[in-house]
Amino acid sequence: MEIIREGPSASHPPVLDSKNYSYWKPRMIIFIKTVDERAWRVLVAGYKPLMTTVDGVSVPKPEFDWTDDEEPHQLGMLEL
């Protein structure tokens, strides 16, 4: 099946196929940054989940337990 290619879109990411990586990569970076600059920072810096201790075992902290100070850290904006 042939993929229909259209111009840039703020609502749809660029399509990657086996022949267009050098075309696709910078457009995907721009698309992600346009959607949310913080999402790009997390992709570049890597995701490190907040951890908590439960019964002596370190486990990822559930998002609904994050404090206001911890949320920017999870978005790649701050280091704790």
TrEMBL record:
Name of the protein: Gag-pol polyprotein
Native source organism of the sequence: Cucumis melo var. makuwa (Oriental melon)
